[in-house]
């Protein structure tokens, strides 16, 4: 019996071959720059470690070259096997966790190799490996973050994506992908269900799907799934899985925990395993230890800044140096959140007069409780400490007392409870923070509802890695004054 190959079959094989080449090229253009960034991180870190050790050791000889090449080789294998380059859709906090674990694995393997197989390893070389391990944990995540941020601005970086689904939901998903270009996903085509329904027969639908994927050179299909009949969207998943080997399903409910949720098979039924990490006493203890440890570590730097600001506030405005305001904390307990006073003593009167003179700004004030040109601010020093968030330094005392954390939702007042609605019980589960997702995601340039959504995301997806990511992003946000006024 002979097998007849039709022109349609030949066309399908040709398209599949072209798509494979396109996917390979996209992977190459996306992964190779990240590999180069990783290599540069290792070289810079070990060279810096040698410079520091040269201050202590006199016999440095060829330790750098003897240790660097083996480390690069071990890291290349470790990173590849460990998924360091499976970055499509990977949140930065997840990448931070993965890279930290892989860095430590690579350095520990190198250290073990020195101890077991290299009889000529000197104390200097072992010290070089150990110091590199410490420094790489500090340097490499930052290089990774900067690399992804810079690469995300390039039109050739990332995997091309086709978004399919009902118009409103699909467009919302498309905007989310475009807004988060560092996730290495480039939306190149939107195919709505309304457009797809113009194909009346199954062969026509298959042809439209093949043409869409082929013409856009898409590596990934993102399905924007509405809350519809499970049987219906299961068949849609099966259909699109024949058009692309990678299919990502985005349900209409954006409020699910996402970062650490894992799929589970329950006798052929899919389950989602979400961990309530905020109920773990050990993890909360680690958060508390991180807060106190970082404050003590940076106190020699922060104390002179603290004293300087206090003196400038006193010199520029009569009245107290500090300003305290009642806020709602964890479990509904109220506390006084402290700040450097950045407003004039008669702030309320100045605000009311300003709003009476500019009635068009009253809506902005009532909506956001913020004004870009706030008449209450102390001229000079007040604007500076607010733009760089230095007015919040006294809240470190709140952190030491346990009223606040370094990272958490922005502490709110009683009048804001009604705005949080169903999210308020989530807010009460955590200790409010000095910085948080809102501060590093646009701050005053976001709406109040977006702030609430970010707070809810933080609570649902909390982990120490998310805290570390937010702290790192806070440095960039403060230095560049992103969203500050």
TrEMBL record:
Q: What is this protein called?
A: Undecaprenyl-phosphate galactose phosphotransferase WbaP
Subcellular localization, as worded in the UniProt entry: Cell membrane; Membrane
GO MF annotations in UniProt: phosphotransferase activity, for other substituted phosphate groups
Provide the membrane topology annotation: Multi-pass membrane protein
Tell me which domain of life the UniProt entry assigns to the organism this sequence originates from. Bacteria
> Which keywords label this protein?
Cell membrane, Membrane, Transferase, Transmembrane, Transmembrane helix
Q: Where are the transmembrane segments?
A: 28-56, 68-87, 289-313
Instruction: Indicate whether Metal-binding appears among the record's keywords.
Output: no
Q: Where is the Bacterial sugar transferase domain?
A: 287-479
Query: Which species expresses this protein natively?
Result: Blastopirellula marina
Give the GO terms filed under biological process for this record.
polysaccharide biosynthetic process
Protein family membership:
Belongs to the bacterial sugar transferase family.
GO (cellular component) term, any one: plasma membrane
Q: Which Pfam families match?
A: Bac_transf
């Amino acid at each position: 019996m002979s097998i007849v190959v039709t022109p349609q079959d030949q066309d399908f094989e040709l398209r599949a071959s072209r798509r494979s080449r396109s996917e390979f090229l996209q992977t190459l253009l996306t992964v190779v720059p990240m590999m180069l960034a990783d290599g540069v991180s290792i070289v810079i870190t070990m060279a810096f470690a040698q410079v520091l050790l040269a201050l202590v050791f006199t016999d440095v000889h060829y330790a750098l070259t003897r240790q660097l090449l083996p480390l690069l080789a071990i890291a290349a294998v470790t990173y590849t096997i460990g998924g360091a380059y499976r970055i499509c859709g990977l949140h930065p906090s997840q990448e931070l966790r993965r890279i930290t674990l892989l860095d430590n694995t690579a350095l520990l393997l190198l250290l073990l190799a020195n101890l077991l197989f290299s009889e000529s390893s000197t104390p200097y070389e072992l010290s070089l490996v150990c110091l590199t391990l410490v420094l790489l944990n500090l340097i490499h995540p930052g290089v990774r973050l900067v690399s992804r941020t810079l690469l995300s601005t390039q039109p050739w970086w990332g995997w091309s994506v086709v978004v399919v689904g009902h118009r409103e939901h699909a467009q919302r998903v498309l905007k989310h992908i475009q807004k988060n270009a560092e996730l290495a996903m480039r939306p190149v085509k939107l195919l709505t269900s309304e457009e797809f329904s113009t194909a009346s027969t199954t062969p026509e639908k298959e042809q439209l799907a093949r043409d869409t994927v082929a013409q856009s050179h898409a590596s990934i299909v993102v399905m924007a799934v509405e809350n519809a009949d499970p049987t219906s969207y299961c068949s849609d998943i099966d259909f699109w899985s024949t058009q692309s080997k990678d299919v990502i399903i985005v349900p209409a409910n954006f409020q699910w925990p996402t970062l650490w949720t894992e799929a589970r098979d329950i006798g052929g039924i899919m389950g989602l395993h979400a961990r309530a990490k905020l109920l773990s006493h050990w993890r909360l203890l680690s958060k508390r230890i991180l807060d106190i440890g970082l404050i003590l570590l940076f106190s020699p730097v922060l104390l002179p800044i603290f004293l300087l600001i206090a003196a400038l506030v006193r010199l520029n405005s009569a009245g107290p140096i500090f300003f305290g305001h009642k806020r709602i904390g964890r479990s509904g307990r109220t506390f006084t959140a402290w700040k450097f006073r950045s407003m004039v003593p008669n702030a309320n009167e100045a605000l009311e007069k300003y709003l009476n003179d500019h009635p068009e700004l009253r809506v902005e004030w009532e909506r956001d409780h913020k004004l870009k040109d706030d008449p209450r601010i102390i001229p000079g020093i007040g604007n500076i400490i607010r733009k760089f968030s230095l007015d919040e330094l006294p809240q470190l005392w709140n952190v030491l007392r346990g009223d606040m954390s370094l990272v958490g939702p922005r502490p709110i007042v009683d009048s804001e409870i009604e705005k949080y609605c169903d999210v308020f019980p989530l807010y009460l589960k955590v200790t409010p923070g000095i910085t948080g997702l809102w501060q590093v995601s646009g701050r005053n340039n976001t709406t109040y509802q977006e702030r609430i959504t970010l707070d809810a995301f933080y609570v649902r997806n909390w982990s120490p890695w998310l805290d570390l990511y937010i702290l790192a992003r806070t440095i960039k946000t403060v230095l560049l004054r992103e969203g500050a006024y």
